[in-house]
Amino acid sequence: MRSVKIYSPATVANLVCGFDVLGMCLNEPNDIMEVKLLEEKKVTIKSKDGYNLPADPAQNTAGAPLLAMLEELKEPAGFEVTIEKHIKPGSGIGSSAASAAGSVVAANHLLGNIFSKEDLVRFAMFGEKVASGVKHADNITPCIYGGITLIRSIFPLDIVSIPAPRLYVTVVHPQIEVRTSDARQILRKEVLLKDAIRQWGNIAGLVAGFIKQDYELIGRSLEDVIIEPVRSILIPGFDEVKKSCKEAGALGGGISGSGPSIFMLSKDEATANEVGKIMQDIYAKIGLPHHVYVTTVNNEGVRIIKN
Ligand code: HSE
User: Fold this and answer.
1) Is the per-residue pLDDT at 49 higher than 90?
2) Residues with Cβ within 6 A of ligand 1?
3) Atom of ligand 1 nearest to the CA of 13
4) Looking at residues 104-125, what average pLDDT do you find?
5) Alpha-helix runs per DSSP H in the chain
6) How much is the average pLDDT of 82-97?
7) How many angstroms separate the alpha carbon of residue 128 from the centre of ligand 1?
8) Do 3-162+298-306 and 168-296 agree at the fold level?
């Protein structure tokens, strides 16, 4: 039976101002997944972790994308997926996207890469629908393409890879669970024009800052006047983390995806490590278990580790 083993990486969606349109792939943490090619049309899911994720493929974030892929195959085929989760569900660093993107990249590899990356994003969005109730691609796309990506539109898909200078990423995951579906439900459905103007100025500034390798512009543009004021109330210590990390030299940052993780970008490794210590101190003081990652941007995305 042919099989493939992959690393599927964590991602930071939104990048503060770009709700549902910007995302970044991280070098750490990664899920490990093994996918086997079957001769009959079926998908089975096995989990090697204690997260109690649904085994029914239609309800599983790795299974639903594969069911969508099978519908477009001419020959009967199926997949057996074994998932070893290291990206905790509900952490805000793309746990569901890692399962969805990892399963379709691995399956496509076994099929001889018959589908394009854009097709894989289209399939993987079925996993996000299972996880959060709506299709969004700002975790899946950087997970599949690597680097920093802009999803200008999902219907039809219009994906742009954004070149960027070297960036260090510090992520703290306070161990409370925020479900993406809940974090989406609390958002206001309408925004004021003055806020929209500020937000699209920031999105354009952030993208321009990445392309021009202008760290000051990146820092100034990491501002969110629409989503963060609503969602940050779900995250203990948020304001203190943001303020203290910026004082320590971080370019800026904010909620990672729908939270509760918070990420900060830094220009150099020493600052990123210092930012990590500050995050640790704040959550130790609050008395909340937490995990800190200091990492860099992963320009490759899902990686095959064994054929
Ligand atoms: N853009 C999505 C949200 C990402 O913020 O709801 C979820 O990880």
Assistant:
1) no
2) 13-14, 19-20, 136, 138-139, 180, 183-184, 257-258
3) 4
4) 98
5) 63-70, 95-110, 117-132, 140-145, 180-185, 193-212, 215-221, 228-231, 238-247, 269-286
6) 95
7) 10
8) no
Contact by Cβ (8 Å): 126, 64 = yes
CATH of domain 3-162+298-306: 3.30.230.10
Catalytic-role residue among 11, 34, 61, 128: 128
Residue 82 annotated to the active site: no
b/e 45-59 (16+ beta carbons within 10 angstroms → b): bebeeeeebeeebee
Chain segment 159-188, per-residue pLDDT in tens: 999 999 999 999 999 999 888 889 999 999
Determine what percent of the chain is predicted with pLDDT higher than 70: 100
Cα–ligand 1 centroid distance for 33 (angstroms): 23
Greater confidence, 110 or 54? 110
Q: Where are the domains of the chain?
A: 3-162+298-306, 168-296
Q: What is the pLDDT of the chain when averaged over all its residues?
A: 96
CATH number for domain 168-296, candidates 3.40.50.300, 3.30.70.890, 2.60.40.1120, 3.40.50.720: 3.30.70.890
Rounded to the nearest angstrom, the distance between the alpha carbon of 77 and the centre of ligand 1 is 32
Is 61 a catalytic site residue? Answer: no
pLDDT, position 51: 86
Count CB-CB contacts under 10 A for residue 193: 7
The residue whose C-alpha atom lies closest to atom 6 belonging to ligand 1 is: 258
Q: Whose CA is nearest to atom 8 of ligand 1?
A: 257
What mean pLDDT is predicted for residues 189-194?
Answer: 97
